[in-house]
Each structure stands twice: as structure tokens, then as C-alpha cells.
Amino acid sequence: MLVDGGTSTMFWSYTWSITGQFFIVLSLAEMASMAPTAGGQYHWVSEFAPGRYQKALSYTSGWLSSTCWESFVASDCMFAAQLIFALVQLQNPDFEIHNYYTALTSILIGTIVTAINVWGAKKLALLENVFVTLHVASFLVVLVTVAVASPKNDAKEVFTTFADNGGNYPLMGLAVMVGQVPAMWNVLASDAVAHLSEEVKNASVVTPKTMFWAYMLNIPLAFAMLLVFVFAMTDVEAAVGEAFPFVWILQNSLSTAGAQAITAIMFILVFMIAVSCFASTSRQLFAFARDNGMPFPTWLKKVNPQLNVAANSCFVTWGYTVVMSLIYIGSPIAFNAIISLAIVALMATYAISIACVLWRRIVHPSTLPPVYWSLGRWGIAVNTLGLVYAIFAFFWAFWPIYWKPTADEMNWAIVIFTGVMLISAVNYVLSAHKMYTGPVATCEGRKEG
């Protein structure tokens, strides 16, 4: 976003991304209260879609949701690996980072994350509580340290000056739209808690409340951090030239030791996110396999009786991270496309599920179940705004950072997205059309449509 629009794009794109995602969170929380299940979006689509489209839309949503969550895990592990080498370069600026260093470190991190989720599954709830405490404490440490120590940018530069820093788009408005993609990425994954619903007592009450308050807690922290960093970014061109602009800010504000300490804290935060993300991802994959939406469903949905966890789904998630990390060796650009892929796929699932519940709310409102977390009379408005934002984000996530990009600069998300859809279509033709009926093929009170 610094390339396309500078700090003003960073600030305003975060502002409207936070606002748009808020309506998605409200919509998802209500659906999670109606049907608290590990399947999340594909289950909700099966519940609320018109009968004739129920099976196809649910199946498509399941594949999209699985794809985006697998991509989240791979990207979190890669980001954690990159932070390790950012630490190394802070100590030794002449250290040359080869792609395979980062890739192998990403695989190592993915392996540790997998081990925690498989063999430490029984302690995962305790770990999550520890993570939440560390998350807030670490955020505050970084926030206060950078706010106090960094030089300050001019307010006019931060809020009203949009600049082309290499994207070369002919219209600044177009550049700003393209530059918003990282902001979308940072406010995503609001459905993470929903995929853990089957392990929560009184899930129809606890899950939506947790989704809502997790968002409401994180957004002020993220917004405060955003303000601190955009004001600390006194030389955008210099920051753009760095692999990690925030590391440039730390170097410009603190001693080497201080910059290393803050970077280490950020590594811990990203690692914790990877562990939590892995938990949601493996359960989403397990749930979809349980409904015969994936190849080899019997093997994928098998639960290890000693560990009480779907270990095979965990190992597949680890395998996806390994493959994506190996791709990074040959082409970091191709790997980076999975960030856009995750946005595209997740926004598609948001759009489909919200559209289905909106349709049912308008056409067959009496068939919506009683719900603890209800949007009430605001339901149509909230669902509509969430749907519009999801479609808006889906569209822009395909765009490349640079105008007239070379092959190395191209956003290859469209190619990967098409490939995933083709694989899902082949699986559907070969087996899933017989085996997959959707988790709610026939549910009393939802037969209309």
C-alpha cells in the first residue's frame, strides 16, 4: 500500500477495511449463533441457500474456505521465518538471505506449529488464553515504545497526501484501490472462532460473542498501531526500499538492540497467530472431509483416539505449508500470490454465505431459526453492507501492485484461484457429486426455495 498511495492510502484503506469488515463480522456472528459448527461458511450456505443451489454453493464454499485457511497458515509461517532473518540482518546488515534459507525456516516453523496442534491439542485452550494475554501485552509494549521513540511525520502528509511510490498507476484513485489489499489482509479471518465451535460449551452463545468482542478488542489496538507507524514513517521512499518497512521504522527510531527486541516480540505474535490459525484450518478441513467434500474423506476425517484430534487433517495442513514454502525457493512472487488468494477465497465465502442468509431473511424470514445473537431489524441492512464490501474486496484482491506488470510483478492469484476451482470441479465430477450432499441437505423448516 506504500507503493500505491503512500501513508494516506495506508491510513484510509485501513479505516474503510475495518468498517466494511465490521458488517461481515456481525453477519458471521449471527450465522454462527444459528449454526455453531466447525464447517463455518459452507455449512451456513447449506442451511440458508435456495434448495436448487444448495449443494453446489455449499461445496464451492467448502473448497474456497479450505483453500484460504490453508493459505493463511502457510503465509503466517513464512512471515515468521522472514522476521527471523530480519532479526539476523539487524545484527549483521551484510548477511545475504537466500530464498531457501527462508523456505526451510518456514517449514521448520510449520512443523513446530503442527506438533503443538497435534500432540499439544489438549492444552490448546490453555495456550490460547496465554496467547491472548501476551498478544495484548506485546502490542502495548510495541505501541508505546515506537510512539515515544520515533520521529514524527506531518499530519498533512499522513492524512491527505497520496503519492505514487513506484506503482505507476495512471490514476491516483485506482492506485489507492489497489493499495488497500494489505489492509484487507490484516482485518480478515473473522470466522476463525467459528471453526472451533464444536469444542465450545454453549457454542450458540459463546461463539458469536467471542467473534464480536475479539474484533472489537483488536481493532482499536490495530488502529492505534497504524497511527503510530504512519506518523513514524518519515521517509516513505526509503521504507518502500526495505523488505520490511516497519523494520526501517524501528531502525530509525531505536538502537539496534531495541529494534531487535521489538522485532522479536513481533515474531512471537506472528507465531502465536500461526498456532491459532492452524487450529481453525485443520478443523475446517476435518469438517469438510466429514461431509465428503474432499478427496479421501475417510482418511482425512479420522480422529486419533489417543490424541482426540483429527491428526490426518493436521498433517495435510502441514503438507500444504511445506509445498508453498518450497515454491518460495523458486519464486517469492508466486508464493506472495497466496496472500491475494486467501483474500479472494475468503471474501468469496463471506459473500456466498451472507448472500444466502440475506436471501432467506427476505424471501423466507419465518424459516430462520431462533437465535441468541440476532441482528433483529438491522439484519437486512447489515447483511447487505457486508455483502457489498465482500464483493468489493474480492474484486480488488486480483489486481497487481504495479501498472502494466512484468511476469515477476504480476498478481498470480487469478491463476491459482482458477486452478483450485478446476481441482474442486474434477473432484466433484469424479466422486463428490455422489458422496457430497451438504451438511443440511434436508432440514425441517428450511425446505422452501
UniProtKB/TrEMBL annotation:
Predominant subcellular localization, coarse grouping: membrane
Alphabetized GO MF terms: transmembrane transporter activity
Pfam family, one: AA_permease_2
Coiled-coil ranges per UniProt: none
Annotated GO CC locations: membrane
Keywords: Membrane, Transmembrane, Transmembrane helix, Transport
Membrane topology note: Multi-pass membrane protein
TM regions (residue ranges): 12-29, 100-119, 126-149, 169-189, 210-234, 254-280, 309-329, 335-359, 380-399, 411-430
Compartments where found: Membrane
Protein name: Amino acid transporter
UniProt source species: Cladophialophora carrionii
